Structure formats: C-alpha cells, structure tokens
Amino acid sequence: MDLRETPRGQFARHPWEAARAAFFRRVVAMSPDAAGRVRALDVGAGDAWFAAELLPTLPPGSTVTCWDTGYAEHAPPAPTGEGLLFTPERPAGPFDLVLMLDVAEHVEDDVGFLATIARSLLAPGGTLVFSVPAWPLLFSAHDVALLHHRRYTPARARALLTGAGLRIERSGGLFHSLLLPRALATLRDRATGRSVSAAAALEWRGPDLLRRALELALRADNELSWRAATAALDVPGLSWWARCRRS
Fold first, then answer.
1. Cα(119)–Cα(126) distance, rounded to whole angstroms?
2. At how many degrees (to 10) do helices 15-28 and 208-230 cross?
3. CA separation (Å) from 208 to 16, 105, 106, 178, 211?
4. Strand-pair partners of 85
5. What gap in Å lies between CA 27 and CA 223, rounded to an integer?
6. Cα–Cα distance, 192 to 148 (Å, whole number)
7. What is the DSSP letter of 193?
8. Burial call 21-40: b when 16+ CB within 10 Å, e when fewer
9. Which residue in 21, 132, 14 sits closest to 6, CA to CA?
C-alpha cells in the first residue's frame, strides 16, 4: 500500500489489495530457476505489506529490501520478520528480483527511472515484475489524489520495458471486471468535480462477509488474467502487468 493510502490505526485491507497480492505472488513463483537465496527489491514498497507477504514464499535465507523515498519523511514499518529490510535511499544492487508494482506512474521521468533500475539494480538474467494503471482515458480524481502522472496503454507500457533492455516473458491486463465500474466512476467524478481522499483509497469499511466475497470474486477475475496471459491474450483490464527478464 502506498504510504499516501495508509490510514491511521488499525484497518482492514481492501479486497482489491489482497487479490492483487495473491496474483503477484503467483507471478513471482513462475520462475523455476531460484534454487538458492533470492535477493529481492520492492521499489516503492509503501507500508511493506506485500513484501512481508512475499518473503515467506521465497527460498530460505532470501531478503526483500523495501525501498521507498517516503521513509525519509515517515518512519518505515516495524520489520515483521527476518529478511525484511528498509531504506529511503537507492540501495546497492544487483538484485535477482525487482518488483515495480504501480510505481512508474508516480515518476515524472519513467523512462529514465526504469532504465536506471534495469541497468544498475537488476542482475543479468534477473526478473522484474511490473504493473501500472491502464488506459489514459480513465485518469481520474483517484489518480490525482495518489499523485499519478499518467495511466498507460499496453503499447506504451511494453515500449517502456523493452526500451530499458528488458525481455517481456508474460504480460496482460488485470482486474477486468473493474474496468467498467472505474469508467463509470470517472465519468461521475468529471461531471460532479468529486475529489478522493488518498488515505481512504484502499481501506475497507464495509462488512467483513462482503469483503471476503469480493476478494473471492476478484481472485476469480485474476484467474482469467492468468489464463489469458498463458495463452498470450492481452484482455483489457484496469491494470496492466508484465514479467520481464534482463538479458
């Protein structure tokens, strides 16, 4: 969760975030070549919840470095286990695995930023897992609240990755069922001038039973994403993702 989205005190994770985490754990687990310890980097790690969820799925002795410039202003979360590290400064590479999940849209110079990460922080043969919000027409008050510079078409996202010297192994849309609701919400926001609070963007405030039902529905949606990517089909979704390899 982005530090701007983190509510104060105890809160329930939004089903979107839980389903997203399950999907990207699966994407990371695709690699059969991680026989030893993995040195992973989570760029823009925020409150490090995903990093803490991922670490137990990696080989014993692996580490996940959480890099977020926000840690210079806000104290990083307390470590939840051995192997979870925090830094507000760019860490020293190389890393076997780099996660850039919903990060590029926050960076004004996304081309230069990704190129630097691919060249300086990702080991040769290493894996980069990437996601961005999709479709510029859906840019809304939600994006403004989260300080997004842009949303991406799949073509622009692919060009960004290949331009950084990365080979895309698998890619596709994500959260297909949320595409229409977001389009309608965007039209509403533009018509009414409605604003969105970043702090409440991913906090779940509804009944727990509904939260669980929505998470199951979104996981089923993400299964479609997985199957479509396996068949090399790029089905449009609210987000776009890719698993890449540095040559």
1. 11
2. 30
3. 14, 31, 31, 20, 5
4. 65
5. 12
6. 21
7. T
8. bebbeebbeebeebeeebbb
9. 14
CB neighbour class for 204 (10 Å; exposed up to 12, middle 13-18, buried from 19): buried
Phi, psi torsion values for 71, nearest 5 degrees? -70, -15
- The reported pTM is 0.90
Structural tokens at position 148: 């997004």
- Bridge partners, 118 (sequence order): none
Under 8 Å between Cβ of 129 and 24: yes
Strand order across the beta sheet in which 84-87 lies: 84-87, 63-67, 39-43, 95-101, 122-133, 239-246, 166-174
In degrees and rounded to multiples of 5, residue 235 shows phi and psi of: -80, 130
Q: Which helix (H) or strand (E) holds 226?
A: helix 208-230
- Residue bearing tokens 């987000």: 239
- pLDDT tens over the chain, length 247 residues: 555 555 555 667 889 999 999 999 999 986 655 567 999 999 999 989 999 999 999 999 999 999 999 888 877 776 666 899 999 999 998 999 999 999 999 999 999 999 999 999 999 999 999 999 999 999 988 898 889 999 999 999 999 999 999 999 999 999 999 999 999 988 988 888 776 655 555 677 788 889 899 999 999 999 999 999 999 988 999 999 999 999 8
Judge contact between 96 and 34, C-beta under 8 A.
yes
